[in-house]
Amino acid sequence: MFAVVRTGGKQYRVAAGDKIAVEKLAGEAGETITLGDILLAGKDGEVLDASKVSVSAEIIAQAKSEKVVVFKKRRRHNYRRKNGHRQQMTLLRIVSVA
Question: Least packed by Cβ within 10 Å: which of 3, 39, 60, 90?
């Protein structure tokens, strides 16, 4: 059984046992959370009623994603700015889709 859930403005197709990295969610490592915004659910090629499905996940860790380099430059004006950013993310293990 699988489900499509929306969290952090992105959509993820998940099944039991999957590991995903999402935008930062509140909670500590080891806690169990319920992903609420379920868009679609299915099993064996059939589409099920998404309102009756619940997705439970365990927080593996709170981490940071890869660094994104922000570089600004204006030609012929001796203007250069280099900056970096690492987005906070949460690693989840999907426990059950029921």
Answer: 39
What pLDDT score was predicted for residue 18? 98
Full-model pTM: 0.86
Report whether 49 contacts 17 (CB < 8 A). Answer: no
Residue for token digits 């660094």? 67
Distance CA 89, CA 23 (A): 5
Please state, in angstroms and rounded to a whole number, the distance separating the CA atoms of residues 42 and 48: 5
Distance between CA atoms of residues 32 and 25, nearest Å:
12
Going by pLDDT thresholds of 50, 70 and 90, the confidence category of residue 60 is: very high
Cα 30 to Cα 73: distance, rounded to the nearest angstrom: 44
Residue 50, classed as helix, strand or coil, is helix
